[in-house]
């Protein structure tokens, strides 16, 4: 199919031709949004609108950045090969020679580059070290432990106060991590009075007096129902704890909150009497227990924040002393640098004249702020929401329906705010609706289904519904767009066996498809990338319900020589090869420890059987590789 007849053809053409206009491109799954960004990057260089070293393309993850850089280079090479204009060919050739000068990376790597160029103004040493992952977790843990030791030595009354508030170190540690993760969030602190629990005590005692007389003496055949369980919980706690002490009583209220549904046929009394008892308990829950717990949380909140804030400051000072910056530091320092220093902002606007952002739906408020400081036309304005990007300087691509990083404050509200700002400054929102990936049947089903799911909820709390247009022709082997691979019944429904057999069936079907079983219609973009009608490994996506099963599918594909990449799999520890390598390294590092050596000997590197190792031990052998 020719792109000229696509319903979104005009939008795709604007991406490549209207280089002096600011765009936000909304592109659904499979619509070629990254391809559109690459085309714009190539067009900017081909037309001489941007010098190679003044272009910055930013995306969310390192993996995405690597793929973007690779596709960008391929795009440049293809355009150069097809170009006939000598001047354009010269510009494209120069761009290829200067590929390493074109920034293509994550927002954090981009911020690190800005800070290293102007460290003095940022107030940091130029040789700072970026920390992430395990290294940062260990440093954060050390800062927290140091703070607790300091408090215990110099202000033990604070720890006693925590005990009174019924707060554990584990609870506080998680709050400490959250406050470190969102340093730009101003936490409201308001000191509240300790809640008065006398009324809820009185009403609960009154309820219990009636409930005990109705409670069955013996457990019903089908077990205690929710209301009976709640009553028995109170009775049990009365025996075990002094409920006059506030913290134990509040713990009990927490257990009673949300439980207590009655199953009438498990009570010896009349249904109406049981229903009346149930309603009494629900009334106590709604009018007394829930308000008491909310008041208790509000009361504790002030003291919790008061305790943790010094720990957060201490951790920040530790990073500063050791010249370390985490992801939040990179973002916060860059935003502050650009906000407070107009000369630096002007410098970087000349340094990077064109900023292109992929996966924009994953952008949080601080990242959006940096984007507008780098492209805004008023160097003195400190409120980024009042800035107007220079025409053509900002190009962002995203899909609000794929906004999945709300735990990192990347939400639809930020997306919509930037969308309004771009539209308000004369920019335009383009929509790419053609889906090159999925079969028509699947697209039509998705349109019909999600139109109903999205429509009742209006922005700013939910993305708007946007229908997809189909591109591919029906595939004969795929029938109605759904192929079922059945796994035979597994005894006791053992999930690992089911997943393993499913992995084999899926991998076998993919192998058959790649070896001539399926032919696919290709977009013009795919054809330019050298893809023919034969199915390739990259055409397939396997989605698993549990990460631990990813290894099974990976091994099934590997067994058949099918190339693959894992995404979102945090279970490297499940790799037998990696575990055996770790055992080997531990055995070398600690020769006196026989456990990793024995594990290594029975692993893939040596393959000794358990029986042989056992006989070796019985014969007086020692698991010490330095011995004769």
Q: What characteristics describe this protein?
A:
six-stranded parallel beta sheet; mainly alpha; 24 helices; two-stranded parallel sheet; 10 strands; 628 residues; single chain; globular
Description:
It contains 24 helices and 10 strands. The chain has helices spanning 9-17, 33-46, 62-82, 86-97, 107-117, 119-122, 133-154, 156-164, 169-181, 198-214, 226-240, 246-256, 271-321, 327-340, 342-351, 365-375, 412-424, 440-454, 495-517, 524-528, 550-559, 576-589, 594-601, 610-618; strands at residues 23-27, 55-59, 103-106, 129-130, 324-325, 354-357, 394-398, 428-432, 434-435, 469-470. Helix 16 links the parallel strand 6 (354-357) and strand 7 (394-398). Helix 9 crosses helix 13 and helix 14 packs parallel to helix 16 (365-375). The protein is globular, with a radius of gyration of 31 Å.
Gist of the model:
With 628 residues, the protein is mainly alpha-helical.
């Amino acid at each position: 199919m020719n792109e000229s007849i696509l319903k979104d053809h005009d939008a795709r053409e604007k991406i490549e031709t209207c280089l002096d206009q600011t765009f936000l491109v909304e592109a659904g799954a499979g619509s070629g949004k990254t391809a559109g960004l690459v085309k714009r990057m190539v067009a900017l260089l081909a037309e001489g609108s941007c010098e190679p070293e003044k272009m910055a393309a930013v995306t969310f993850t390192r993996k995405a950045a690597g793929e973007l850089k690779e596709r960008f280079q391929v795009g440049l090479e293809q355009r150069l090969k097809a170009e006939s204009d000598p001047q354009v060919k010269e510009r494209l050739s120069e761009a290829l020679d200067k590929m390493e000068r074109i920034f293509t990376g994550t927002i954090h790597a981009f911020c690190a580059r800005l800070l290293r160029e102007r460290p003095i103004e940022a107030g940091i040493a130029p040789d700072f070290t970026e920390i992430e992952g395990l290294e940062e977790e260990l440093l954060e843990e050390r800062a927290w432990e140091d703070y607790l030791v300091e408090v215990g030595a110099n202000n033990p009354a604070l720890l006693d106060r925590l005990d009174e508030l019924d707060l554990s170190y584990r609870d506080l540690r998680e709050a400490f991590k959250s406050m470190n993760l969102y340093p730009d969030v101003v936490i409201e602190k308001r000191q509240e009075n300790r809640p008065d629990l006398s009324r809820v005590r009185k009403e609960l005692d009154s309820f219990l007096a009636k409930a005990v007389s109705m409670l069955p003496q013996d457990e019903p055949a089908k077990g205690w129902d929710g209301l009976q369980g709640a009553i028995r919980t109170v009775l049990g706690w009365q025996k075990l704890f002094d409920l006059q002490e506030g913290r134990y009583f509040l713990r009990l209220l927490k257990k009673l909150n949300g439980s207590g549904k009655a199953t009438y046929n498990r009570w010896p009394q009349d249904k109406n009497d049981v229903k009346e008892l149930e309603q009494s308990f629900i009334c106590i829950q709604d009018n007394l227990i829930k308000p008491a717990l909310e008041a208790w949380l509000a009361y504790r909140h002030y003291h919790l924040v008061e305790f943790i804030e010094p720990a957060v400051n201490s951790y920040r000072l530790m990073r500063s002393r050791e010249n370390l910056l985490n992801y939040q530091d990179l973002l916060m320092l860059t935003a502050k640098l650009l906000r407070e220093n107009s000369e630096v902002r002007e410098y970087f606007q000349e340094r990077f004249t064109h900023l292109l952002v992929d996966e924009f739906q994953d952008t949080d408020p601080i990242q959006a702020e940096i984007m507008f400081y780098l492209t805004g036309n008023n160097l003195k304005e400190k409120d980024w929401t009042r800035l107007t990007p220079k025409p053509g300087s900002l190009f962002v691509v995203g899909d609000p329906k794929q906004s999945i990083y709300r735990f990192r404050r990347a939400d639809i509200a930020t997306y919509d705010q930037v969308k309004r700002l771009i539209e308000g400054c004369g920019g335009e929102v383009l929509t790419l609706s053609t889906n090159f990936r999925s079969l028509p049947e699947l697209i039509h089903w998705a349109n019909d289904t999600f139109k109903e799911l999205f429509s009742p909820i209006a922005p700013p709390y939910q993305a708007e519904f946007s229908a997809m247009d189909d591109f591919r022709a029906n595939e004969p082997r795929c029938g109605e767009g759904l192929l079922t691979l059945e796994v035979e019944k597994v005894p006791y429904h053992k999930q690992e066996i089911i997943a393993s057999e499913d992995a084999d069936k899926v991998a076998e079907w993919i192998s058959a498809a790649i070896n001539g079983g399926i032919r696919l219609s290709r977009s013009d973009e795919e054809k330019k990338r050298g893809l023919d009608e034969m199915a390739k490994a990259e055409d397939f996506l396997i989605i698993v319900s549990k990460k631990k099963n990813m290894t099974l599918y990976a091994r099934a594909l590997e067994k058949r020589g099918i190339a693959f990449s894992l995404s979102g799999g945090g279970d490297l520890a499940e790799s037998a090869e990696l575990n055996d390598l770790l055992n080997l390294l531990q055995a070398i590092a600690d020769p006196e420890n026989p456990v990793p050596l024995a594990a290594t000997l029975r692993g893939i590197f040596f393959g000794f059987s358990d029986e042989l190792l056992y006989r070796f031990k019985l014969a007086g052998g020692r698991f010490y590789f330095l011995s004769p």
